[in-house]
Amino acid sequence: QSTYNIRVGRSKAVLGPYLDREGRPMLEGHGTLVLESSQRWRGTGHNSFLSTPQGDWLVHACYDAQAPRQGRILNVRTVRWVEGWPTVGEPINRP
Length: 95
Hints:
Layout: E1 5-8, E2 32-36, E3 41-52, E4 55-64, E5 73-82, E6 85-91
Antiparallel strand pairs: 1-2, 3-4, 4-5, 5-6
């Protein structure tokens, strides 16, 4: 079981400090959870956010527990912003 997850923080200045949704510093191990392993998708991480004319997306690597010999794959998820913080949907299965 993987403990990888994706967390975010934000700052008013590019050099920080970066804080999570509760105002806790990321440098102290905090961060607002965006995505963690599920029953099927394991080891979520190595991510990037993309903005396109069709919307915002989270792209990340993971393992599919239903196809463990496949190795790491790429998942693409829609991003919705709630009070300035990202929430993600299920992986899309086509562009």
